[in-house]
Design brief:
The chain contains no helices and 15 strands. By secondary structure, the chain is an all-beta fold. The strands form four sheets. It has a four-stranded antiparallel beta sheet, with no helix packed on it.
Length: 192
């Protein structure tokens, strides 16, 4: 990529384009057919800490690890946050604040956004197309924390379940409404 180490990867499920988050705050979009990125977006002032794309391919969420209004860390503050981007116009739609820097993001089949930071997990409903006022659900992991580098949260397809990778193991969180009610028989991997 010629942009240094890339610790954040996310794939657009609609187009199969790979989104790479870099240490300089940019997110590059890659197709295997080209040797240069399709798009370079400056998303944060510091390193990108997490990224995800919704199933429709319209929205991307990113979290930074430096203080830029939604990144956390530097400048004396310990807060964090994440941003929602419109991939049709490559512009920022919303910015959300969290108590600590966000390390994990995941979007469900029906658009619920899971956000992990420290020992906290938040689930946001209707937070992509429009700005939500507060989380739909909050969960605390007492004595533990969500694993970093995007490996801590994953939605189970067609189920109302969020998998939590923790520092001391694994847990499942029941969340009403994130999975599609009926699976498509022509899907690549329908549930057994």
């Amino acid at each position: 990529t010629k942009l240094g180490a890339c610790d954040v990867l996310a794939q657009n499920p609609s187009t199969a384009v790979v989104h790479c988050g870099h240490g300089n705050g940019t997110v590059t979009l890659w197709s295997p057919a080209l040797s240069t990125p399709l798009v370079k977006m400056l998303c944060h002032r510091g390193p990108v800490g997490a990224a995800c794309v919704d199933p429709s391919g319209r929205y991307m969420c990113t979290a930074g690890v430096a203080a830029d209004g939604t990144g956390g860390g530097g400048g004396g503050g310990s807060g964090g946050g994440f941003k929602v981007w419109d991939l049709r116009m490559y512009r920022e739609l919303h910015a959300y604040r969290t108590a600590r820097p966000v390390t994990n993001l995941a979007v469900s089949q029906r658009g619920l956004l899971a956000v992990g930071f420290g020992s906290h997990v938040q689930v946001w409903r209707n937070a992509l197309a429009a700005k939500a006022k507060s989380p739909y659900l909050r969960h605390e992991l007492p004595g533990s924390s969500v694993c970093a580098n995007g490996r801590g949260l994953a939605w189970r397809p067609y189920e109302d379940s969020l998998g939590l990778g923790k520092a001391d193991g694994f847990a499942a969180l029941a969340v009403p409404g994130p999975g599609a009610a009926h699976y498509a028989a022509l899907a690549a991997h329908p549930p057994a």
